Amino acid sequence: MASDANSDADGPEPTADRDAEIETEVGDDDDQDGPDEDALRRIADRTPTRLGVGRSGPRPTTESLLAFRADHAVARDAVHSRVDDELLAELELVELRTRVEDADQYLARPDLGRELDAESRERLREECEPEPEVQLIVSDGLSSTAVEANVPELLPILRDGLADRGISVGSPVFVEFGRVDVMDAIGEELGADCCVILIGERPGLGSAESLSAYLVYGPERGTATSKKSVVSNVHDGGLPPVEAGAELVELIEDTLAAEASGIDLREDDREFRES
After folding, report:
1. Which stretches are tagged as biased composition: Basic and acidic residues (predicted)?
2. Where are the domains of the chain?
3. What is the pLDDT of residues 205-251, one digit of tens each?
4. Which of 10, 71, 89, 151 has CA atoms 20 to 30 A from the CA of 195?
């Protein structure tokens, strides 16, 4: 009982305080004048979350319903559309494909997105440099929009940054209908020290441009997700591609030096440059 008393005396009630702060900021439900519209607008400007959409009786307003449907369409398009062929040619990526046949199968069979088809495995061996220090992979994943929005800026930063540090990079590839773990299969086939995959994230409503970068040291099939490092939310409204590129180059350098990634890459390993 003493510990409970001390807890009550020493700390505030965060939920009550937070509720009071919100009521002060935007007004409560009993406020006849309604919420503070300026305050609500300021809060909404800080987040893509759908706030203050209003309603007509128990139903959403026409404006908010149409906005919802438009945002949902953006998310669906990101999943079902394909990356532009001209962009892939411009980025000089070796084009590969997983065992997935179409977008519907991609959603239903994640396992097929983790392995290249037979033709792509042959092309990988014929056209890609073996045993690179770093193998760069681009994949549409769950959002081709994310690839088109971020990779043209991010990929050159990675190439140049790694070259400046004397780190060899293999022939970058693009994998259609890829899952994160396809990097394990590609890295194992090529004998790469480290693999990095830039892949489209699952789109949200009205936010389809978010990209993730996963990194693994010593890739081989069946590598646990916990052994992979990740830099996520890469897009202009989150972590800008320029900043993500710089962060990834440092992460790759640390990974190669420590010969570890994911939970095996400790903070002490990442501080060797400062010691």
Report:
1. 38-48
2. 85-264
3. 667 889 999 999 999 999 999 999 999 999 998 999 999 999 999 99
4. 89
Q: Is 1 helix (H, G, I), strand (E, B) or coil?
A: coil
Annotation: binding site for adenosylcob(III)alamin = 180, 201
SS3 165: coil
What is the amino acid identity at position 41? R
pLDDT, tens digit (0-9, with 9 covering 90-100), for 119-143: 999 999 999 999 999 999 999 999 9
DSSP state of 228: E
Q: Residues near 243 by Cβ (< 8 Å), separated by ≥ 6?
A: none
Is the pTM above the cut of 0.85? no
Question: Kind and range of the H or E element at 198?
Answer: strand 194-200
Per the annotation, binding residues are: 180, 201
- Give the pair of three-digit tokens for residue 262: 């994911």
Q: How many CB atoms lie within 10 A of CB 30?
A: 6
Q: Which two tokens stand for residue 186?
A: 């590609």
> Do 254 and 270 form a contact (C-beta atoms < 8 A)?
yes
- Residue 177 in contact with residue 106, Cβ under 8 Å? yes
Name residues whose C-beta falls within 8 Å of residue 251's C-beta, 6 or more positions apart in sequence.
Answer: 215, 229, 231, 270
Please tell me the distance from the alpha carbon of residue 44 to that of residue 188, in angstroms, as a whole number: 46
Tokens of 225: 């997700």
Q: Does the domain made of 85-264 have the CATH classification 2.30.30.700?
A: no
The larger pLDDT score, comparing residue 87 to residue 273, is at: 87
Evaluate whether 91 touches 152 at the Cβ level (below 8 Å): yes
pLDDT score of 125:
95
